[in-house]
Amino acid sequence: MSKLLKVIYSKKSKKFIEKNKKDGLKFFKAFDEISQDLENIKYYDIKNLKTKENIFRLRIGKFRALFSKRDDQLIILVINIGSRGEIYKDL
């Protein structure tokens, strides 16, 4: 088992989770499982963004979460969660 990672949610991602209970819970559960063991990443649709270094997207249904993993601090920073059409506009 790998080291435990801390998950930090941005204000935007917290707002999405609170507003969309059902889908927000799926993202919360996914990041919780990934933080427990990075081997769980293989169970999710995660890709590295080609345009930004060290930023990844997690797709669950029609929604995407953008996040960054900081190796030096063992942190997963969830930047934003939203629909496909809107999520990439903030980058």
Automatic annotation (TrEMBL):
User: Which one Pfam family would you cite for this protein?
Assistant: ParE_toxin
> Which controlled-vocabulary keywords does the entry list?
Plasmid, Toxin-antitoxin system
Which InterPro entries does this chain map to? RelE/ParE_toxin, RelE/ParE_toxin_dom_sf
Instruction: Say which domain of life the source belongs to.
Output: Bacteria
What is the name listed in the Swiss-Prot or TrEMBL entry for this protein?
Plasmid stabilization system
Organism, scientific name: Sebaldella termitidis (strain ATCC 33386 / NCTC 11300)
